[in-house]
Amino acid sequence: MNKVLGIFGLLLFVCLFTTVMSDSFVSEYNLYNITRWSALFGILSIGVAFVIITGGIDLSIGSVVGLVACLLPMLVTEYDVAPWAALLIVMVIAGALGLLHGILITRLDLQPFVVTLCGLLFYRGFARWMTDDGTLGFGQEYDDGLRLLAIGKPCSWATMLLIGGLGLVIWGIWKAIRPSSTHVDPASTEARAARLRSWSLPVIGAFLALVGASRFFLGWELGEGTVLLQAGGYQIRSLGIQVPADAVDVPSRVMRVAGTILFIPLVLWFLIAAGRGNLKRVRWPVAAVCVSLVLLALCVWNLVPLYDRAAADDLWQVGVLRVSGNALKSGLMAVVFLVVGASIGAIGWLLSAAASASPICKALIPALIASGVLMLLGQTNFAATMVPMPVLFLILIAIAASIFLNQTIYGRYLFALGRNEEAARYSGIDTKRMIVVAYVLCALAAGLGGILFSLDVNSVQPSGFGNFYELYAIAAAVLGGCSLRGGEGNVLGVVIGAAVMRVLYNAINILGISTKLEFAIIGLVILAGAMVDVVVKRVIASRAAKADAAQVANR
Question: How far apart are CA 63 and CA 61, in angstroms?
Fold first, then answer.
């Protein structure tokens, strides 16, 4: 959970920094693009997470994406294969490639790096030979059919919040009323924290459902929705719910009000519980948060307007120096970057210190973060933005992957295999079969990604389509908590990691930073995230060692 909070803090930092520097970041069009591309790369990242958890690696993801993206339009447009049959064929091919990787690694004892590197080269070369290096696409013929799998807009985010909130309420109530297997004193602080933690989910879900339902407060009509998919004479359509024009902005207003109503009491409760638990531990983090927020407010009121006025060809007097507009903008950007980073870091410091000071604070953190994010999103038109179809695929895949990894015996096998393959084999786990399963799942995710990418862009160039996608996917998985040594991984963290990669790319473009620095900036951010993760691990280990030593001394 600490890793998930850390990568979420990084995502929040990038979003806040970019929003402060440019309002266009939170426009409906930009939010739609970010969520769409984050979902596409999130699917690839979940697939490679299975392989990384086992301690392996897959470098062929981008080439599999390119191969599938070339095969699909070729089958549909040149060979007149039915769309549903073409989809099935390319997914079978992708799964077969994953099966081949797994067999070569387990039966011939080849290194995963070597096998997948050869796959990267071979699949790319084969796609170029098969297409004669020509550009492929679907044209306009399938815009109202097959391509809707990638470019369809089934509903708004308000509707998704309503559905997700109701689901969270049901799940939270079920977890809250389920009998506990542990027996503790009901009056103890730990028991109160456990009850608070279990009932926080239904409360958060109720607020989300309220925000989503507010879209229909002014009335609605049920009409014929847009086509999402048609095959064999049958059509799958969106919900087709029409609301008045005045109702579009209602969810954002409700989100602001509901988030504030929930956030302010939670902050007060959180601070009081932290002070009662260990006042000395939290007083400096609280002071750091207050100072950083004051500095952030000063930046927003003074530096950001100056940044907006600075033109590239102007000369500005800064003290005794005369600087160009570009230099001034870069300096202001650096100052805001440091202030926003300090604010997020101070908040993280406070959350960590308070969680260790009081179990009540630890139980309040999810609701506190949810209400804060709700309040921030209320300042944008996020609720009125349409949901891209790839997001639905990502949600389904993420739920299935979470259940597989955390609720089934095979998921435990994968984690055990990653932690110690020899011990897993001696305990009776068929390690070779599980490795094959991991590579097949990764290839299937890459195949689905190739389908959606090709349908989305509708122009596939085999020589470059999918290049570096494997690096984005691996980086997102590692940022999200997957250890390259194996044995660790979290699906939610992987999804957030994929969002971080796309938000970074989007921020570079919006802020006018040279795209030549794209990979350099992304590399620095990933390196910084990895360094922070290592430092936090060492601090936690050091504190645990000191606590153990203190317990031994007291005995």
Answer: 5
Count Cβ atoms below 10 Å from residue 495 Cβ, excluding itself. Answer: 28
For residues 280 and 264, the answer to whether their CB atoms sit within 8 Å is: no
**d(C-alpha 458, C-alpha 426), whole Å:** 50
The pTM score is 0.89
pLDDT on residue 320: 57
Helices (DSSP H) in 54-82: which residue ranges?
61-73
Backbone phi and psi for residue 227, each to the nearest 5 degrees, phi listed first? -75, 130
The CA distance from 529 to 345, in Å, is 12
CA 347 – CA 8 distance, rounded (Å): 12
| Burial (CB count <10 Å: 0-12, 13-18, 19+), residue 419 | middle
Helix, strand, coil shares of the chain, percent, nearest 5, are: 75, 5, 20
Q: Is 322 in contact with 316 (CB distance < 8 Å)? A: yes
How is residue 227 written in tokens?
């086509």
| pLDDT bracket for residue 179 (50, 70, 90) | low
Token representation of residue 369? 């973060």
pLDDT attached to residue 7: 84
Q: Looking at residue 234, what is its pLDDT? A: 66
Q: Is the dihedral of CA 189, 194, 197, 203 positive or negative?
A: negative
Tens digits of residue pLDDT in 64-90: 999 999 999 999 888 888 888 999 999
Alpha helices in 408-517 (DSSP H): 409-419, 421-426, 431-457, 469-479, 491-510
- pLDDT 10s digits, 428-446: 889 999 999 999 999 999 9
For residue 311, pLDDT over 80 is answered with no
* Alpha helices for 183-249 (secondary structure H): 189-213
Q: How many CB atoms lie within 10 A of CB 361?
A: 28
What are the C-alpha distances in Å from 221 to residues 11, 97, 244, 499?
37, 48, 9, 34
Tell me the C-alpha to C-alpha distance, in Å, between residue 474 and each of 47, 278, 468, 478. 10, 40, 10, 6
- C-alpha closest to that of 56 among 533, 400, 483: 483
